[in-house]
Amino acid sequence: MKFHPDTISVQSIRSYGPGWVQVGDDRLIHSVVISSSGARFDWNCTRFEDLSCAHFEQLAELKTELVIFGSGLKLRFPSPKLTRALIDQQIGLETMDTQAACRTYNVLAGEGRQVAVALLMEV
């Protein structure tokens, strides 16, 4: 049997560590949103405590089937009050630490799913 490496035809996270991710040749040290549709933009939040409804409204505008929220070095869940825009549009939300969010995003995006990952990089 011959094995072939998996190739991902969408934007993926090449590597990650505490406080950074690498997408393509870009090493990112700030909070960022990446989607399987090709969107990538800064997510202007540097602390979990500063998350607002506007942050999740921005994610709802992507119209994905699922948003993966990487909450930093430890697992923290945003209030349902904050995520109301996703709930109203029936967009799923999964919360995990940022490193697990990176791995999960790559798997789902590689399967062709309409998914976005919002990664909180706290400073």
Structure described in brief:
This protein has 123 residues and is of the alpha/beta class. 21% of the residues lie in helices and 28% in strands.
Topology:
Blueprint: E1 13-17, E2 20-23, E3 26-28, E4 32-35, E5 40-42, H1 53-60, E6 66-70, H2 84-88, E7 92-96, H3 98-110, E8 115-119
Parallel strand pairs: 6-7, 6-8
Antiparallel strand pairs: 1-2, 2-3, 4-5, 4-8
What does this structure look like?
This protein has three helices and eight strands. Strands 5-4-8-6-7 form a five-stranded mixed sheet, with helices on one face. Strands 1-2-3 form a three-stranded antiparallel sheet, covered by helices on one side. It is α/β, with parallel strands linked by helices. The longest helix is centred in the C-terminal third of the chain and has 13 residues. The N and C termini lie far apart (48 Å). The protein has one domain: MTH938-like (Hypothetical Protein Mth938, Chain: A), CATH 3.40.1230.10. It comes from Rhodoferax lithotrophicus. This is Xcc1710-like domain-containing protein. InterPro entries: MTH938-like_sf, NDUFAF3/AAMDC.
Which terms would index this structure?
single chain; 123 residues; alpha/beta; Hypothetical Protein Mth938, Chain: A; five-stranded mixed β-sheet; three-stranded antiparallel β-sheet; MTH938-like_sf
CATH architecture verdict? 3-Layer(aba) Sandwich
What CATH calls the topology is: Hypothetical Protein Mth938, Chain: A
Provide a count of the helices: 3
Broad shape: globular
Beta strand count: 8
Largest sheet data? 5 strands, mixed
- What order do the helices and strands follow? EEEEEHEHEHE
Please report the distance between the alpha carbons of the first and last residues: 48 Å
User: Order of strands in the sheet with the most strands?
Assistant: 5-4-8-6-7
* The CATH class: Alpha Beta
What percentage of residues falls in helices of 4 or more residues? 10-25%
Radius of gyration: 14 Å
Count of the separate structural domains: 1
Instruction: Pick out the low-confidence regions.
Output: none
Average pLDDT metric: 92
CATH superfamily: MTH938-like
Q: Beta-strand percentage?
A: 25-35%
Structural class call reads alpha/beta
